[in-house]
Amino acid sequence: MRQIEITANDSGQRLDKFLTKRFRNMPQALMYKYIRTKYIKLNGKKCEISSRLQEGDVLTLYIKDEFYEETYDAYDFLKAPVKLDIIYEDDNIMLLNKKPGLLVHPDETYHFDSLIARVQHYLYDKKEYDPKQENSFAPALVNRIDRNTGGIVIAAKNAESLRILNQKLKDRELEKLYLCITLGRFRQKEATLTGYLEKNEKQNRVYISDKPSENAKTIKTRYRVIAEQDHFSLLEVDLLTGRTHQIRAHFAHIGHPLLGDGKYGKNEINRREGFKYQALYSYRLTFRFTTDSGLLSYLNGRSFTAPEVWFTSRFSPQDYLSNKHQ
Known about the structure:
Layout: E1 2-5, H1 15-22, H2 28-36, E2 40-42, E3 58-61, E4 86-89, E5 93-98, H3 115-125, E6 140-141, E7 150-156, H4 159-170, E8 174-183, E9 190-200, E10 205-209, E11 217-229, E12 232-239, H5 246-253, H6 267-273, E13 280-287, E14 303-305
Parallel strand pairs: 7-13
Antiparallel strand pairs: 1-3, 2-3, 4-5, 5-7, 6-7, 8-12, 8-13, 9-10, 9-11, 11-12, 13-14
């Protein structure tokens, strides 16, 4: 028999979700059987898979020792470099300036270096995160950015901040503005584009059309031309809907692909201009909470800007239009 005390980072979860994270090698069917037959008890009593855990609760478990994973000091995240560009940090969150080329999460081809691994390594060194002290939580990223795109990524240091920010992201209470360079000049210097996006999972790309279809999702992309030079435009973009590759595919669809975009752009121009990555950056984040934000209420109304966007230096001061962002 062993006991687990529920901490603040574990509270609020359903029992089955907690057990799945804590005992990763336990078959789900067996977990349900343990709960049903009272081999797993909550505060000494029979519980349900849907029971909500609260801080201070005690789980009593009569399960095989083989399901308790051993803890090792050589965590995978320690193999990642502690190299972070931190825009802002407090006890609850971090705002990170991710550079193009870095994965936000490990994938099947590259396991050890990623933004989240760097964050966990950094917090481990600061003694703010220790897997030995956690039952089910690890610092996590709230939003994602493509590998070859740069910009601001939010990391949550505790479970309550992660829960709040995930909901705020879903409710569109986080305003994210992007900068990008597109090919060609725009007749309309400011507009909102509407289209219909369909994703092809096998190809890992999306297709945009002007007419709705059964499997397509509506997209809206607002842009404002900030500067022009030769046959290129620097835009500020606000995603009114957040779909996969939306900015890249939407502007390519209207004949203005992003400079440096190897998937939706023009590679001969990318090579000629020397752009290895797409000229796209999530450069400004504003917290615009319209509902209760709990322990993160102090962030409401605050705005953060990436200190440097690598491709904007292409435009000289005289290239900027009179309506550029102040």
